[in-house]
Amino acid sequence: MSDFLVIDQVSKSFDSSPVVDSVSMTIRQGEVFSLLGPSGCGKTTLLRMLAGFIRPDSGRLFLNGKDITDLPPEKRPVNTVFQNYALFPHLNVQENIAFGLQMAGRSRAFIAHEIERMLTLVKMMDYAHSLPAQLSGGQKQRVAIARALINQPQVLLLDEPLAALDLKLRQHMLSELSAIHREVGTTFIYVTHDQEEALSLSDRIAVMNQGCVEQIDTPRALYNDPVNEFVAGFIGDANLMLGIVRERCGENLFLVEVTGWGGVLAQASVELELDRKSTRL
Ligand code: ATP
């Protein structure tokens, strides 16, 4: 199922400024895939195109081989969890969670069964009758996740879902999200500008910059083998040094002169030019 969700040369401009610029990527069924990049790089716009809230100017989107580019949001087997929860304030927790199934006209017995399953999944059994205003941020986000999952979407889109939470709660919710993903196995697409969140949660990450994809890889590969200076700086900002390549010592091993450090042995997966110009390690 390697071609589960295909984004094919998708572009979007606002006021004639390109915000997403011919982006292509393939997301596998069941993986946690993050869109990671600095503020304004276009990751939320790309997510909103997957949800169907924004139409691409060009390019196509395919889910399970079917072209979904022109489908309205409600016709896509996709649900979104928003940063601000977007719960109905006048409905209690179980009514919020039930909403999607009620709209789909499912039977009372089925809805009751599914509510219980979802409340258990997000550990909110004791709060079934609470109103959103009576919940903490983390609890509201659990309800939002349950509400988005109850319809069994093929893809769950998460738009910076933990950004409004404090650091400790964010770390706790990250492990909860991993546990929920393990339980349901739904494909998660997770938008964040937080490197640690993306690295700890994701199977693979697309690093974005100014509307383009810089690299798509596993967290380990991004960290150990960034393809360029932007990815290296964005993923692990303390490990960039400027130097001149002096000698080739092995297939991928170079002696590099670094100011203040003298000669440093460096591994490189790309060909480096001897003496010719400075390189970043
Ligand atoms: P953040 O992490 O801050 O949410 P992002 O990477 O998700 O950033 P987007 O929300 O996709 O970025 O926005 C990318 C750019 O597009 C920004 O410069 C933003 O101002 C602009 N933009 C987004 N939506 C619109 C819109 N509806 N109309 C005009 N410009 C928009």
Task: Please describe what this structure looks like.
The protein is α/β, with parallel strands linked by helices and 281 residues long. The chain is 30% helix and 30% strand. The chain has 8 helices and 14 strands. The strands form 3 sheets. The chain has a 6-stranded mixed sheet, with helices on both faces. A 4-stranded antiparallel sheet has the order 2-1-4-5, with helices on one face. A 4-stranded antiparallel sheet has the order 13-12-11-14, with no helix packed on it. Strand 9 and strand 10 form a beta hairpin. Helix 2 runs parallel beside helix 4. The model has no long low-confidence stretch (mean pLDDT 90). Bound molecules: adenosine-5'-triphosphate.
Overall morphology: elongated
| Helical percentage | 25-40%
| Cα-based radius of gyration, to the nearest Å | 22 Å
Please state the structural category: alpha/beta
- Beta-strand residue fraction: 25-35%
Please write the string of helix (H) and strand (E) elements: EEEHEEEHHHEHEHEEHHEEEE
How many separate helices? 8
How far apart, in Å, are the first and last alpha carbons? Answer: 37 Å
Lateral arrangement of strands in the main beta sheet: 6-7-8-3-9-10
How many strand units?
A: 14
Biggest β-sheet, characterized? 6 strands, mixed
Multimeric state of these chains? single chain
What is bound: which ligands? adenosine-5'-triphosphate
Mean pLDDT: 90
Which stretches of 5+ consecutive residues score pLDDT under 50?
Answer: none
Tell me the layout of helices and strands.
Blueprint: E1 5-14, E2 17-27, E3 32-36, H1 43-51, E4 58-63, E5 66-67, E6 78-81, H2 93-103, H3 108-121, H4 137-149, E7 155-159, H5 167-184, E8 187-192, H6 195-201, E9 204-209, E10 212-217, H7 219-224, H8 229-235, E11 242-248, E12 253-258, E13 262-267, E14 278-280
Helix pairs in contact: 2-3, 2-4
The protein binds adenosine-5'-triphosphate (ATP).
